[in-house]
Design a protein that fits this description.
By secondary structure, the protein is an alpha/beta fold. The chain has a domain of 187 residues: Rossmann fold, CATH 3.40.50. It contains eleven helices and ten strands. Helix 4 packs parallel to helix 7, helix 5 packs across helix 7 and helix 7 runs parallel beside helix 8. The chain binds adenosine-5'-triphosphate and magnesium ion. The site of adenosine-5'-triphosphate has 12 residues, from strand 2 and helix 2.
Length: 271
């Protein structure tokens, strides 16, 4: 029998992950809010059909990095991004890029569920309608149903899709927001602490969903829960004071990180 040393197993795992192609490449990404620098030359690549978790103490720049991936920082006055970020090799900060189209390709789910004060159906159909993804009402119905199905919500709402989205429970609202993100067929889904407003049962449902979505989408998730990062992600990136400390296979990050700051954070010694 071929006995593998722990180091060899680790290397094999690394190689397995390192074969996965990059969907997004971030090179020397720095972000400033006015004079204040929030990110320092971050080099972080996002692998395709992989869940990448961003972890680190409050204020370290996780949300800032996440927002730079679909140019949501553009909506913040005085915010400036330098460096280069590409999606399938295309520079997303190129002035010729259509930001609306970019955000359809790189969708986002926020910390607090934020359905529009409209029906469940309208919440999900809005994106496909404005992006012209449906040719007919039947098409649109189909997109709404399949998106709600992919978000694991269809069975709970199929008899009331014309009722208000805000009438759902918090966990259902978050899955509705995931259905809304999925409805425009994004390639990448960014999630900023998507479970922080949810109870353990709703959290488990969203985590299961993330697991399933990974087959078809590239996912980047910010989380304060180390258990969640360990459960849902294959790669983990640790930030500290605006710097990327290290990025590695999730298994390695949680068993044998290279940097003592990662170890300290995971062990709850700071943050
Ligand atoms: N809109 C903003 N205007 C000015 N400064 C900001 C803004 N958003 C974030 N910052 C600053 O940038 C730094 C990084 O913030 P960011 O929100 O990215 O951290 P985070 O890691 O997501 O933290 P948390 O875990 O608390 O959500 C912090 O110092 C924060 O004060
Ligand atoms: Mg944040």
């Amino acid at each position: 029998m071929n006995m593998l040393t722990e180091a060899a197993v680790e290397k094999a795992l690394d190689q397995k992950m390192s074969n996965v192609p990059y969907k997004m490449i971030g090179q020397d990404v720095s972000v400033y809010y006015g004079d204040k620098r929030a990110l320092f030359d971050v080099n972080l690549n996002i692998r395709e059909n992989t869940v990448t978790a961003l972890i680190g103490p409050s204020g370290c720049g996780k949300s800032t990095f996440l927002r730079s991936l679909n140019r949501m920082n553009d909506t913040i006055d005085g915010c400036r991004v330098t460096g280069k970020i590409s999606l399938d090799g295309e520079d997303i900060y190129d002035p010729d890029i259509d930001v609306v189209e970019l955000r359809a390709r790189v969708g986002m789910v926020f910390q607090k569920p934020n359905p529009f004060p409209k029906s469940i159906y309208e919440n999900v159909s809005y994106g496909p309608r404005i992006h012209g993804l449906a040719k007919s009402k039947a098409d649109l119905d189909q997109i709404v149903e399949s998106s709600l199905q992919r978000a694991g919500l269809w069975n709970e709402v199929k008899d009331r899709v014309h009722e208000s989205g805000t009438g759902l429970s918090g966990g259902q609202q978050q899955r509705l927001c995931i259905a809304r993100a999925v409805a425009v067929s994004p390639e990448v889904i960014l999630m900023d602490e998507p479970c922080s407003a949810l109870d353990p049962i709703a959290t488990a449902k969203v985590e299961e969903l993330i697991h399933e979505l990974r087959e078809n989408y590239t996912i980047v998730i910010v989380t304060h829960s180390m258990q969640q990062a360990a459960r849902v992600s294959q790669r983990t990136a640790m930030f500290h004071l605006g710097n990327l400390v290290e990025e590695n296979d999730t298994d390695k990050m949680f068993t044998n990180p290279d940097d003592s700051r990662t170890q300290d954070y995971i062990m709850g010694r700071f943050g």
